[in-house]
Amino acid sequence: MLNPSSFLLVAALLVSNTHAASLKVYNKCTGTVFLNTASSSGTIAHNVLLGAGKSTDMRISANWNGAINVGTGCDASGRTCTTGGPTWDGRTPFSRAELNYAAIPGTVIYDISFIYGANVGMKISSSGGTGCANFACTLPKGCPIRGPGANSCYSGCCRSAAECKAKGALPPGGGGCPKNGYAGPHSDFFYKNCPNVYAFPFNDGAEGGKPANYVVSQCKNTAITVTLCPGETTHIPKSLGLLLQGEAQQQMSRPWDASFDEYDPQALEDEVFDSSDYLALDSGSYEEDF
């Protein structure tokens, strides 16, 4: 039989575990961003306008599995954007965070994807925990195909801006990234400058993709923060990643395998989450020029 103090301890642990899964987004960019969310399981706040210098709790369920796509210059619905929406397929560039809280209880698997191009720098971090790696990317100058707006860069899978605009970054039937899997004509700009970010779908070494970079983290701490425009870049080698994650890292699949999914435009019909704390949309720049 538990004594009162033990009962209180167990109760506290149960409460802690119940509320352990969390996802916050902090916008360090100088302009308002639009957070378009896509889910394969669980729930999350949809279509969030987040002002410069603001942060928000995305209100995820413990079994959420999906992605956050970042738009700039968007209206409140995400149907009109300078980058990202409304198609969210790389016709205009966007940065993407992919997270899976559902696969392993008490663990979140995550990555940053610039497969569809990039419009803001990004970082995914935890406050510690076994196997956790903080990934970050702030692209330097020299983008091979500049995108619309102040600072965006088209997908490395496209040979030209016109190709991305016409078909998206990963069109059905294959595109600039061969079979929509391997490195494209400009993927090297992304994987050389940001080795801990997906530049093409098999950038993790799947199906013999090269380079096989350390781009997926399996973290036993489900309190995660996504920071936009972090102003930093990580260079964690694959060898260190394998030590951190164990050999199981080689067997992990991407948390949200959107590279081979069709985007569901219905996602744009989801509720719009806004707050009086969020700033009005502006046309400010989002980070240093690349």
TrEMBL record:
Region forming the signal peptide: 1-20
Keyword Transferase: no
SMART domains: THN
Annotated keywords: Signal
Top-level taxon of origin: Eukaryota
Keyword Signal: yes
Protein name: Unplaced genomic scaffold SPHSTscaffold_114, whole genome shotgun sequence
The species this protein was found in: Sphaerobolus stellatus (strain SS14)
